[in-house]
Amino acid sequence: MDAIFKRRSIRKFTKNDVSEAQVEKILKAAMSAPSAGNQQPWHFIVIRKPSILKEIPKIHPYSNMLLEAPLAIVVCGDPSLERFKGYWVQDCSAAIQNMLITITDLGLGAVWVGIYPEESADADDFRKLLNIPNSVIPLAVIPIGHPGENKSPADRFNAERIHYDCW
Questions:
Q1: What phi and psi values does residue 141 have, to the nearest 5 degrees?
Q2: What predicted TM-score, i.e. pTM, was given to this entire model?
């Protein structure tokens, strides 16, 4: 529960590296997410090359934090893996949330940078940059690193948004 409440969007990173063991834990957590019919329609692209990380802000206007991050993971959905059509976005989003909680638990920081369906962050540009097949859809890029900023937990509980039995 601590990691859930401590999780914040981190956009500044130190130069410290993220270990392979940490990346593996993050990806194991992602793949432990629930998915409709256990279809697991996800693929993950782990990016460590600075030259690639520096290209992403050129194609996505809200990803400048990648210039500091030592690592990013692009989460993609593969509709061909779906048994229940249309659920890949929910399934991959659950995987991303598991990643963010695990990243926080590991003492790292990250931010969810959406790609799909944002028109300004053209999925085709990501496909070209990362050699993603046309049938696979990039959903989000997650910059990951050691936090270069300290954000206090936020209490976002709002009782006015809770309805019982009906609206």
A1: -120, 135
A2: 0.95
